[in-house]
Design a protein that fits this description.
single chain; mainly beta; Immunoglobulin-like; 3 domains; five-stranded mixed β-sheet; 1% helix; VWDE protein; signaling receptor binding; disulfide bond; VWF_type-D
C-alpha cells in the first residue's frame, strides 16, 4: 500500500465559465515520486445506494464535474472517492477515501420546526448550496421561490396550522460561504385557533417559479415539516347573579344593572358584552345575566 498523510477529499460548489460545477479537492500526497489520483464521483440514488457518475485519473489535487441536469441534477447528494498511486506502478496505491456527502440544491434550515400556538415568530431560512448563474441576464439574475403550506395532520385536511410572512422569496447570487451560496428568510407563526385540536403537522414547500435555466426547472426542493404544539385555551365565567371568574382565576361579584364589557382582546377584534337586569325584586339588590353579545 502507498501510505502517507490522509487525502481528506472535500466537495465544494463553484462556477466554471458560468456553469455550475462541483469540485473535489484533496490534500496532495508527498511530492516525490510523482503521484496520480483516481477520482470516482457518485451520487445517492432514490433507494439510498451510490451510483457512479464519473471517473477520472489526474495528477492535479482536484477534480471537477458539471451539474448538467442529466448525469448530475439539483437535489442529488454527491460524493467523491479518491485513491492515490504512483505513476507507472498503479498496483501501489493508497486506501480509497470518501468525502462527506454534499447536497446540491435548495434546502430549508432548520430542516424541521416545533412551535407552539403562542404567537411567536420563528425564522426559517431557505438557501441554495450551489451558485446561481444566469448567463446573459446578470442584471436580473435570481431564483424566485413560491412558498406554500399544507396541513398533514388530520384525516380530512383543513386549513394549515401555520402562517408565513411571505408567499415568495428571491435567491440572489452571491459568494458561497458556510454551505450557502444564496439565502432568504421568512418567519413562521402558528395560527392561534382557540381550538383544542391537539398537536398538528404541517409542511412548508418551495417551488422555483419559471426559471430560465433548465437545471433549476426540474428541481423540487425538500419540504420542511412543522409541528404545532396545541396550547390550552383560557376560560372566564359570568354566571347566576353574576359571579365572575377571570382568565387568571380572580373571583368577584357584580350586582349592577346595565350592559358591560366582559372581556376584550388587545391584539384581535374580539370582545364580549353582557347585559344584566334586576332579578332580586324588593328584598335584595341582585342582578342576573340576561343577554350576551360577542364578536
Amino acid at each position: 500500500k502507498l501510505t502517507g498523510p490522509a487525502l481528506q477529499p472535500v466537495v465544494t460548489p463553484e462556477l466554471v465559465q458560468g456553469r455550475v460545477h462541483l469540485r473535489c479537492s484533496y490534500s496532495p500526497a508527498s511530492p516525490e515520486p510523482p503521484v496520480q489520483y483516481r477520482v470516482l464521483w457518485s451520487r445517492l440514488s432514490s433507494h439510498g445506494k451510490r451510483e457512479q457518475i464519473h471517473q477520472e485519473t489526474t495528477p492535479q489535487p482536484f477534480s471537477h464535474v458539471e451539474m448538467d441536469g442529466a448525469n448530475l441534477r439539483l437535489g442529488d447528494t454527491v460524493f467523491c472517492t479518491v485513491t492515490a498511486f504512483r505513476r507507472g506502478t498503479p498496483e501501489q496505491q493508497s486506501l480509497p477515501e470518501d468525502s462527506k456527502g454534499f447536497y446540491a440544491g435548495i434546502k430549508f434550515f432548520p430542516e424541521s420546526l416545533e412551535i407552539a400556538e403562542d404567537g411567536k415568530e420563528h425564522l426559517l431560512t431557505v438557501l441554495s448550496t450551489v451558485p446561481i448563474a444566469c448567463p446573459g441576464q446578470e442584471n436580473s439574475c435570481k431564483i424566485t421561490l413560491q412558498l406554500s403550506t399544507e396541513d398533514l395532520g388530520s384525516q380530512a385536511p383543513g386549513p394549515p396550522d401555520i402562517a408565513l410572512s411571505a408567499c415568495q422569496v428571491d435567491l440572489l447570487p452571491g459568494p458561497c460561504s458556510g454551505g450557502s451560496c444564496a439565502a432568504a428568510t421568512v418567519t413562521v407563526t402558528a395560527v392561534t385557533d382557540f381550538a383544542r385540536d391537539g398537536n398538528r403537522l404541517s409542511r412548508v414547500s418551495a417551488r422555483p417559479v419559471a426559471p430560465r435555466d433548465p437545471l433549476w426547472r426540474a428541481h423540487t426542493p425538500r419540504d420542511v415539516k412543522v409541528t404545532v404544539r396545541d396550547l390550552p385555551t383560557g376560560n372566564c365565567y359570568s354566571f347566576t347573579d353574576p359571579h365572575i371568574i377571570t382568565f387568571d382565576g380572580w373571583r368577584y361579584d357584580s350586582y349592577k344593572v346595565g350592559t358591560f364589557l366582559l372581556c376584550r382582546s388587545d391584539a384581535r377584534p374580539f370582545e364580549v358584552h353582557v347585559r344584566q337586569w334586576d332579578c332580586g325584586g324588593h328584598r335584595s339588590a341582585t342582578a342576573c345575566n340576561c343577554g350576551v353579545a360577542a364578536r
